[in-house]
Amino acid sequence: MTNTIERLNPSDLPDAGQVGYSQISIAEPGRLAFVSGQVAWTADGGAVPGSIAEQTKVVVANLDRALQAIGAGTADIVQMRIYVVDLDSETQGQAMGPLLAFLDGARPSLTGIGVSALAGPDPKIEIEMVVRLPD
């Protein structure tokens, strides 16, 4: 069984590949991991940074640790959902830099969702993933 995820950006849909994600991700049958939404909380209980960009760096570090725990990498991410408090072009721009650096060329299907609040007063961004586990 192959371990690849096919990424598609059909010509009759907006080219999401230009901004770092795919419109469609097709995963071969296999085991999937559903990673709970990660916010800018650390295992040692450190303070949550104030900016979206700094929070995103903590969030992607948590996501990376989750991937390591299941023996997967960013190329194995099938889908991501990103929840941002007061999502607009400015907050989106602040989050995308650290997120794209984390993805390192992987282009999972991605959905950005604007919300009024997350789990507590400090978190401003939360990211969850669906990951196809490597064979």
TrEMBL record:
Please name one Pfam family that this protein belongs to.
Ribonuc_L-PSP
The record's section on InterPro entries has: RutC-like_sf, YjgF/YER057c/UK114
- PANTHER family recorded: 2-IMINOBUTANOATE/2-IMINOPROPANOATE DEAMINASE RIDA, PROTEIN HMF1-RELATED
User: Which positions are tagged coiled coil?
Assistant: none
Q: Which Gene3D superfamilies match?
A: RutC-like
Q: What family does this belong to? A: Belongs to the RutC family.
Domain of life of the organism encoding this protein: Bacteria
- Output the SUPFAM superfamilies linked to this UniProt entry: YjgF-like
* The protein, known as: RidA family protein
